Amino acid sequence: MQYDIIIIGAGLGGLTAGAKLSGEGKKVLLIEQHNIPGGCATTFKRNDFNIEVGLHMIDGLDNDDPKRKILEELKVFDNLEFVRVPEFYQVVKPGCDITIPDDYKQAIETLIERFPAEQKGILKFFKIILALRKEVFKVPRQRWLMLLSMPVFPILVPNLMVHEKNSIGTLLDTLFQNEKLKLVLLANLGYYHNDPYTMSLLYYSVAQGSYFSGGGHFIKGGSQKLSDYLASVIEDNDGKVLLGHIVNEIIIENGVATGVKYSKISKTRTEEQRASGKCIIANAAIPNVIDKLIKEPKAKIKLSGKIGHPEIAPSIFSVYLGFKTPPKELGNRYYSSVFYDGGISRQREIAEYHHADFSKRTCIFVDYSVIDSGLAPEGKSVGVISAIDYLSNWDSLSPDRYKERKEEAAKTLIARLDKFIPGTKDALEYYEVGTPTTIKRYTLNPNGTAYGYAQLPSQAGRKRVKIKSPIPNLYFASAWTEPGHGFTGAILSGYWCAKEILRCKK
Predict the structure, then answer these.
(1) Distance separating alpha carbons of residues 203 and 171, to the nearest angstrom
(2) 486 in Cβ contact with 191 (< 8 Å)
(3) How far is 302 from 281, CA to CA, in rounded Å?
(4) pTM
(5) Does the structural domain 2-43+222-311+458-505 have CATH classification 3.50.50.60?
(6) DSSP letter at 87?
(7) Helix crossing, 119-138 with 168-175: angle to 10°?
(8) One-character DSSP codes across 220-280
(9) Three-class DSSP category at 311
(10) Residue 323 pLDDT more than 80?
(11) Does residue 139 register a pLDDT over 70?
(12) pLDDT of 397-421, one tens digit each?
C-alpha cells in the first residue's frame, strides 16, 4: 500500500504531525503498538475512576505560546475543554510552607514578601527566564535555523546567546544566597529533570516561563481526550490509524527511507506486512530507531554517527489514587503540592534526594478534585503521587520482589500524604502503581523514560537532535527531538515536523 506519510507511534508528536499533514491533503498511515493512541497522553479506567497517566497540567496557552496557534488551527479548543489550574504549586517542607502563583507578577510579590533580602535576585531571575522564553518564541523556527550562522543572530536573541550553555543551578547560585528560596524555585524540577546543575537553563526558562505567563491547564476528562481527538482528525481526513500493530523495520533503499515492515501484535505469529511511504516519521524513541528499526548497515552507521549517544533522561514512579472522599473535602486547597524531606537544605542535595528512599524522596501530589477534572463521578475523585525514578531500581528484581517493592513504595508515599492531609488514607478506594518498567512496557522507551533525551545544556536548544534526520525522507517527531519533552514539546515537535515535510516537498 502506498502512502504519502507513514508515522511510527501515536504519541502526541506523531498524532499532531498526522493531524496537520492529513489536513493538508496527505494520505497518512499511523501505526501504534498500544491498543489506544496517546503514548504518555492517555487515561485508563478503574471502577468509577478515569485515571490520568501523564498530564498534571499543560503550560501556557497565552497569546505568546506557539502551541496555542497550533491547537487553534487543529480546532482542538472547539472540541475539548481546558480547565485553568488555581495555582502553580505549593511547597511542603518543615519550616517552609509557601504557595507559588502561576502569574509571574503575583509570584514575584509572593517571593519578595517571603524573602525580602533577595528582592534584586528575584527580579533578575524572572527577567531572565521570561526574556529567554520570549526570544525562543518570537522568531519562527525555520527563520531561527537560517539565522544561526548570521552575524545578526546574537543581536536578535542576546539572552539566548549568553545563557544557552548554562544550567538553572548555576544561575540560582549566581543570583541567590538563600538556599530555601532556591528549593522553592526548583520545587517542580521533576517535571523536567533530576539535577539543577545539569538542567538546561534555556529549556527550564521556556517551560517555567510559560507557566508563569499563561498558567497551567488540565484537559477536562483527561489527556486521552486530546489523543483521541487528534487520531479522529487523521481518520476524518481519510488517514488510517492502525492500533495494536508494531513496526519491525524502516525500509531503506539506495540510502532513502521508502517504507516500513509491520505486523499485528498477537500471541500467535502473524504475517509481516509492508507499506510504502514518501516520508517516514518516527514518533518512536530515537535509540530504538537506530538499534532496532534501521537494519540497513550503511544507514545505521550514518544515523548513529550523526546522533551519537546523548544521555537519556530519568523515569517516573507514580501512585494512582481513587478517592471515595475527595481530598478537598478533607481540607486540601491545593492542586499541586511538592513534598520535600526535612533533611534537604540546599539545592546541591536535590539530585541526591531523587535517589533517596521513598520515605524521603521529593515527590508531587496532584489533587484533581480541586478542579472540575471530569475524571470521576460526583462525590469521588482521583489523584496521583509522582517522583523521579530509575529503571535500574526495578529491572533486575524478581517478579515477586518487584510486586513487593511496588507495594512498599505505595504504602510509604500514601502514609506521607496522609500525614499532610489527614484522612486521605482512609478515603482511598483504590490505588495502583506505575514504575519505570511500566512506562517501558507501554511506550517501549529505553530506561522507561517519559522525557526522551535529558535536557542538558549540551543537548538542549540548538544542540537538540533535529527533526530532519540525515537519512532522506526520515523525520523525527517526539520528546526525543527538538524542542524536547512534555505535552508542549511533543506538540511543537509534531507540528514542526509536518511543516518541515510540507516545506521540503513543496
Answers:
(1) 13
(2) yes
(3) 17
(4) 0.94
(5) yes
(6) -
(7) 150
(8) TT-THHHHHHHHHHHHHTT-EEEESEEEEEEEEETTEEEEEEEEE--SS----EEEEEEEE
(9) coil
(10) yes
(11) no
(12) 999 999 999 999 999 999 999 999 9
